[in-house]
Design a protein that fits this description.
- The chain is of the alpha+beta class and about 90 residues long.
- It has a single domain, classed as Multidrug-efflux Transporter Regulator, Chain: A, Domain 2 (Orthogonal Bundle), CATH 1.10.1660.
- Helix content is about 30%, strand content about 25%.
- The protein has a 6-stranded mixed sheet with strand order 1-4-6-5-3-2.
- The longest helix has 10 residues.
- It is globular, with a radius of gyration of 13 Å.
Length: about 90
């Protein structure tokens, strides 16, 4: 399972979805978070991309973080892990 360091800082929002940018240089610890990609979640749960996106639409997963305008869909690791611990997923 891979996680990615990202900078959520002042990247902005589009359509209610946070837009994030890869941090250049060494970001401050409070601006970093660990995330899962859709592929990570597919592997974890043994389901397809369509199922992951359907779960998100139904509220079974937390809202996504989108990297770039039409980029990679990411989910905050801490939120996913907490939902797993509570038995919600």
């Amino acid at each position: 399972m891979n996680t990615t360091d990202i900078n959520i800082g002042m990247a902005g929002f589009r359509g209610g979805v946070p837009i994030v940018e890869i941090a250049s240089g060494e970001p401050k610890p409070e601006s970093k978070c660990k995330v899962y990609t859709v592929a990570d979640l597919e592997e974890m749960f043994g389901v397809t991309r369509c199922t992951i996106l359907r779960w998100e639409a139904k509220g079974k997963l937390p809202k996504r973080i989108q990297f770039g305008f039409r980029g990679k869909v990411l989910f905050k690791r801490e939120l996913i892990d907490a939902m797993i611990e509570r038995g919600e997923i």
